[in-house]
Amino acid sequence: MKPILYIIVPCYNEQEVLPVTAPLFLEKLELLRDLGKISDESRVLFVNDGSRDATWDIICALAASDPHYLGIAQSRNRGHQNAVLAGLMEAKDRCDVTISIDCDGQDDIDAMDQMVDAYLDGCEVVYGVRADRRSDSFFKRFTAQSFYKFLAAMGAEVVYNHADYRLISSRVLKEFANFREVNLFLRGLVPLVGFKSTTVSYTRAERLAGKSHYPLRRMIALAVDGITSLSVKPLQLITGFGLTVALVSFLGVLWALITALCGKSVPGWASMTCIVCFVGGVQLISLGIIGEYVGKIYLETKQRPRYIISERTWESEKPGRNS
User: Fold this and answer.
1) In the chain, is it the N or the C terminus that has fewer CB atoms within a 10 Å radius of its CB?
2) How far apart are CA 273 and CA 270, in angstroms?
3) How far, in Å, CA of 212 to CA of 14, rounded?
C-alpha cells in the first residue's frame, strides 16, 4: 500500500511568496504520486502562524481550488517552531509520513524524492542537510556554523547544517507527541526520539519572493532556546569557573596575608577595584545564565498550550484545538 505523505508548510506573512511556491509543492506531490511512491490521498498542509497580511485568504483560495491543498490557522502568532509542531500534530493521524519545509522556496524541493526513497528503504527520519552555504553572506555563514559548533560543544545533539527541512514518519510523530516541552527546539528534540535515520544533502537557493522573517534577534533567541532546552552544560561551566575564581581568590588572600605579615603591604586602589569588578561581573553573568534556566522552568510548569488552531479549511464550524 502506498504511503500517504503530508507536506507541512509553516507560513507567516507570506502573501508574496505563497502563490509562487504553492504550485511547486503540489507539482512535487503529483510527481511522487505518478512515480508510484505515494498515495493520491497525500496533501500539502499550510499552517498560518497568525499572519497579518493576506496569507490565510490565499491558503483558503488554494484549498478551494484543489483538494490536495489543506490549511490550518493558529489563533495568533506563536513562532516558527510551534507552527511546524501544529502541522505535524495535525497530520500525524492522517498520514504515514510528513515532510516539513519552509514556504520561501529556498530549500530544494527535489530533495523530497531522496527523502521518500529513504523512507521506503526503512528510515523513519530523514534530515535535509545543506551541502554548503555559498548563498549566505559571510556574517550569516559564520554565525550559523558557529551556532551548530557551539550547540555541539554544549552537549546538544543536533545534525550539523540541518534546520527544519526533514521527513518524519507518523510512527515517530506518535512518540514525539509525548515530548511536552513548551520551549521548542525541534532540530534538537527530534534526534532524541531515536528510530532509524539518515541525511539528504541539498543546495539552498535564494528566497523566491518576499523577505525573510528570521532576523538576527530571532536566530539568537532560537540559539538560547536550543542550548537551555537540551543541555545543562552552561550551569556546569559556571560551577567550574566559580571554583577556579574561588581558588585564585584564595591564593590572593594568602598572598595578601603574607605580604602584610612581612610589612610590605601598600594600599592599592586599582588592584582592589579590578578584583571587585571582575568578581562582580562573574556573579552577574552566572546569575543571568541561572535566571535563563529558572525562566524556562517557570514557563514549563505553567503547561500552557503550545498552539491553538482556530480554523481549518476543511471544516465549516472550525472548532479550535489545543496542544
Assistant:
1) N
2) 5
3) 10
Alpha-carbon span 89 to 323, nearest angstrom = 9
| Residues sharing a CB contact under 8 Å with residue 155, sequence separation 6 or more, in sequence order | 230, 231, 232, 233
Q: Which three cell numbers stand for residue 2?
A: 502506498
198 Rama class: left (phi>0) / alpha (psi -120 to 50) / beta = beta
Chain centroid to Cα 111, Å, comes to 20
Maximum C-alpha span of the chain: 92
User: With 0-12 CB in 10 A as exposed, 13-18 as middle and 19+ as buried, what is 289?
Assistant: middle
Question: 161 and 91 in contact (C-beta within 8 Å)?
Answer: no
Q: What is the 3-state secondary structure (H, E, C) of 259-276?
A: HHHCCCCCCCHHHHHHHH
Q: Is 321 left (phi over 0), alpha (psi -120 to 50) or beta?
A: beta
Phi, psi of 104 (to 5 degrees): -75, -5
> pLDDT tens digit string along 206-215?
655 556 555 5
| DSSP tag of 73 | E
Measured CA to CA, the distance from residue 309 to residue 73 in angstroms comes to: 6
